[in-house]
Amino acid sequence: GRGKNTAGWNKAVLLLKAAYHHISLEKYKTTSISIDFSVNNILHAALALNAHIPNGIVPFILQTSPEQAFGRDQFGHLPLAIVLSAHFQGPASRRDAIVKLLDINPKAASTPSDEGTQPLTIALENGILWNEGIEDLIRANPKALHTIDKTRSRLYPFMIAACAPLPTVTNPISEPKEDETKRVETIYKLIRGAPDLVATTYA
Fold first, then answer.
1. What phi and psi, each to the nearest 5 degrees, are found at residue 87?
2. How many C-beta atoms surround the C-beta of residue 72 within 10 A?
3. By the 8 A CB rule, do 82 and 44 touch?
4. Cα 44 from Cα 23, distance rounded (Å)
5. What is the pLDDT of residue 3?
6. Rounded Cα gap, residues 53 and 48, in angstroms
7. Can you give the three-state secondary structure of 104-159, one letter per residue?
């Protein structure tokens, strides 16, 4: 019945939150942040663990609790920052999440992380390609094309794209050569969107 379904979902929420807290502590190499099950970060948890959970969970959360697209977790991250850096089941799955998040909260594309890193920088550093979400981020925040990364690399977006690895996904369906072609396409379109940067950088 409905009560049994609710109980099952509540248990799943607790497990997702606990798993997300564990992987976050490992990622940020800290033990000083204790888990708080009252924090409403189930969307963050589902995005971070996307490669290990059923496909329908993230769309379900966004449909039933769209306000979570605006929230930060206990580490200060918006959901968009999580989707740009997490392991995903595939490029299409990641892009679908990016598009949905930007539809609900377009300002997230221009909102830096707590460390001051722009979403476009996070995406490019993680090897996300043009048709896997970069185009959507730029459409939501065109100024990002001309924004230099002031937190780590001190590079412009097209430079970061040239240095980045290809994204990590489970069960990749494309060939390495095809991925490399898409990487070149990504760099080209970033340059085409801000040609003045090339002239300024290499003058």
1. -70, 140
2. 16
3. yes
4. 12
5. 59
6. 10
7. HCHHHHHCCCCCCCCHHHHHHHCCCCHHHCHHHHHHHCHHHHHCCCCCCCCCCHHH
pTM: 0.84
Supply 175's token pair.
């060939």
**């605006």: which residue's tokens?**
70
Read off φ and ψ for residue 88, nearest 5 degrees.
-125, 160
Name the token pair of 142.
Answer: 């065109």
Which residue has 């449909």 as its token pair? Answer: 63
Rounded Cα gap, residues 172 and 137, in angstroms: 23
Taking alpha carbons only, the member of 17, 174, 37 closest to residue 92 is 174
Instruction: Judge whether residue 170 has pLDDT over 50.
Output: no
Look up residue 88 and give its two tokens: 């995903």
**For 83-107, how does the pLDDT look when each residue is reduced to its tens digit (9 = 90+)?**
999 988 777 889 999 999 999 999 9
Give 88's strand partners: 169
- What digits encode the pLDDT tens for the residues 51-82? 888 888 999 999 999 999 999 987 788 999 99
* Token code pair at residue 101: 């998040």
